[in-house]
Amino acid sequence: MNDSDMTLANQLCFSMYRASRLFIKFYQQALQPYGLTYPQYLVLLALWEEDRQPLHALGDQLDFGSNTLTPLLKRMERKGWITRELANSDHRQLIIQLTETGRTSKTEIFESIRVCVRQQAIDPADYRGMLAQNHALIDTLEKMLN
Amino acid sequence: MNDSDMTLANQLCFSMYRASRLFIKFYQQALQPYGLTYPQYLVLLALWEEDRQPLHALGDQLDFGSNTLTPLLKRMERKGWITRELANSDHRQLIIQLTETGRTSKTEIFESIRVCVRQQAIDPADYRGMLAQNHALIDTLEKMLN
DNA sequence: GTAAATTAAATCGTACGCAATTGAAATTGG
DNA sequence: CCAATTTCAATTGCGTACGATTTAATTTAC
User: Fold this and answer.
1) What span, in angstroms and rounded, lies between the C-alpha atoms of B69 and A26?
2) What is the pTM of this model?
3) Other C-beta atoms within 10 Å of B57: how many?
4) What's the pLDDT at A119?
């Protein structure tokens, strides 16, 4: 590995960082009508897959700690997407649940996203290939960071 | 595109976001001894490729606006990595230049990064493949966002 | 049964990212 | 030449990210 591998253009980390930020900007366009940020949309995605999860379970899926999630979820509660209530069985756990609005918006928001993503016109095989490679990379990095 | 394509696990954007954050965390470990953050390291990379650039040129390469760069560069100036001076030819432009420390640290910091990256043990062909695919994706997204 | 350890959310502080605006300097067009 | 436009960096405000600590509730171990 020589110095020419250390240019901005040759850094995989930098290209991931660039692609991620552009991708998020792209999604934000579709989410703007709903007043949602991308991380907030991720919370909705997780809850649409499984409602009524404790905060730490959302954190496990999204790799967010309570330092990130607590204020984010409070904002989502204020905007009427979710409710936050202590679990009866364990008063340390905060159960996050979709509101009626949060549940029923799924169809409309998905359609907005789909319209938006369809314009990207990425080859489905490329998409799946990159997804698989990213998952492999994520596994490698997670192992190295303990 | 059906609802099963909308799970967290099937979102390319989310996997980019996850990989990017893990990658940055990985780099931060190597950068911690120098008190550098990853975005600050990117500025150094750009300046090591070409010193004495105006703020907006760094912004073009890293896709940062002055709203991000101005405070970031002030922190780097305080820590002695760079200097900030108005261009004589154009008093609107702020020329960013490496300090002696900034210039000479290159060798040592590169070595730290290389030691760290070598442990990843990613196949070089995979690395190049992902880099190329990311660049293609970045181009697509940039075009769609104007 | 209770002190020690663990788990969970919240809090604190710092540093991005980025949309939007501001204000100053340079360029342009009539 | 000079008013209008454009180009810059800086500022403002908000929402993440995340290391580190705190506080409260539950488990564990003896």
Assistant:
1) 22
2) 0.95
3) 15
4) 84
Strand D-proximal residues of B, range 83-122, CB below 7 A, are: 84, 92-94
Count the alpha carbons within 13 Å of A33 in the hemisphere toward its beta carbon: 9
Say how far apart CA B21 and CA B58 lie, in whole Å.
Answer: 22
A131/B17 touch (CB, cutoff 8 Å), yes or no:
no
| Side-by-side strand order, sheet with B94-98 | B53-54, B94-98, B82-86
Strand C nucleotides within 7 Å of a protein CB: 7-13, 15-20, 23-27
Instruction: Convert the pLDDT of each residue in A63-101 to its tens digit.
Output: 999 999 999 999 999 999 999 999 999 999 999 999 999
Residues of A in contact with B41 (CB under 8 A): none
Q: Which positions of chain D lie under 7 Å from any protein Cβ? A: 7-13, 15-20, 24-27
* Averaged pLDDT, A103-122: 91
Structure confidence by residue, pLDDT tens digits, B79-115:
999 999 999 999 999 999 999 999 999 999 999 999 9
Inter-chain residue contact A23 with B10, CB threshold 8 Å: no
- Measuring CA to CA, which residue among A63, A29, A65, A28 is closest to residue A46? A63
Beta pairing partners, A113: none
Q: Could A63 and B130 be called an inter-chain contact, meaning their C-beta atoms sit closer than 8 Å? A: no
- Cβ neighbors of B97 (< 8 A, separation 6 or more) are B47, B51, B52, B82, B83, B85
